[in-house]
Amino acid sequence: MSKAMPASVTALIDSFARLPGVGPKTASRLTYFLLRAPTEVAETLSHAILELKQKTRLCNVCFNITEEDTCEICKDAQRDSSIIAVVEEPLDVLALERAGNFNGRYHVLHGVISPRDGIGPEQLKIRELIKRVHEGAVQELIISTNPGMEGDATAMTIKHELDKLGKEVKLTRLARGLPTGADLEYADAMTVMKALQGRQPL
Fold it and tell me: Residue 183 falls within a domain, yes or no?
């Protein structure tokens, strides 16, 4: 650790640098911004982080992030419970909601199958998805994993598990209006809307 920098400053830079997409330079800029900012800015940020960790949980139905046992989308009687969009992460729910033309429900897997990272079907919410299909009146699953090898492998695993279940469910995949390798959360609303409208049988 450099003697030119107090330990508290170094510790905050290191903490910021652990965040995804934040390199050492950005971490340093954020730290020095907070040093110069009024104390209430730092207090508001620290309070928001603590509340995030203390108040949020996973919905007991779809596994999206919520502050209640069941999220607002799952509680909404106006949503079509027979159609479920299966997404990788909670941010993908926001992307589909921004498109404004999906009125079904969601199921958040919390990742994709990635053997190189040691992530198999057991680490995802696939078992819970199959249980929802088994117990409910689900007519269609829209597999909305990101285009690419890992998203495709996850989609095929879900298809395999549904085949074993032996229940008639329409299985579709978002249209390839999404560029291969692109993340759903970064797509604009029009691209997501077109991908939803042009979904294909899996």
Answer: yes
